[in-house]
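Form 7-S
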Amino acid sequence: MAYKILVVDDEMQIREILRIYFEKEGFNVAEAENGEDALKKINSERPDLIVLDIMMPVMDGLEFCTIVRKKFDIPIIMLTAKEEDDDRILGLEIGADDYITKPFNTKEVVARVNAVLRRATGFTDLAHKRKLSYEGLEMDLDKMEAVAFGKVLSLTSKEFELLWILASNPNVVYNRNQLLEAIWGYMYFGDTRTVDTHIKRIRQKLDVPATCSWDIGTVWGVGYKFEVK
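Output:
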C-alpha cells in the first residue's frame, strides 16, 4: 500500500512540484493551502506524513504543528524559506521531525521523506530488547511508553527513540552523527543541532534527581551517553 503525503503550502506552484515528484516515487498526495485546511485534511485523508510550510495565512505551520502534536503522531517535515536558526530550532522543539529550507532540491525532499517514514515505521529494529528498567525509569518498546519517577512521559516518537537507543546501551558514547543516522536514518547534512534540541527536551521531561543512579550525560566535543553511575 502506498504512503500518503499531505503537502501544506500556500504556494500552488510548490504544491504542484512536490505532487509531481512524490507521485513519480509512488506516493499518494493530498494538498492543503493553510493550516486550517490541513487540519480538516488529516481527518479525511489520514496522511502518513506531512510536508509543512511555516509561513502561511490563516494558520501558520508552527501553530498547526503544535496542534497536530497534541492529537496525532504523524511525522512532520517543515518546509520554510526562513534561514534563521531560531525558526528551525523552534520547529524541532514543537515536534517537527525534520526541516528543509527553500529553495530545495526535490530529490532531497523525497529522500528525507523516505528516511523519516523508514524510521517511523521501522523503529523496532533498534534493539532486541522490548523493555528497559532502571531506578525510577521503565520503558516499554511495544507500547512506546516511558514512565519516569511515577509519571508517564509525554514523549514524541523521536524523543522516545533517542532515549531508547541511549538507555539500551548504558555508558556507550554516541556522537551526534551516529544518533542522527540511528534515529533519523540518514546523515543530516552536517546539522547536528536537532540532536541537542531533542536531548534538551528529554532531559526537561525526565527531570532526573541529582541522587539518581543514572542520567543522560554530555561528552563534551563528542556527543551523549546514558550514564549509569
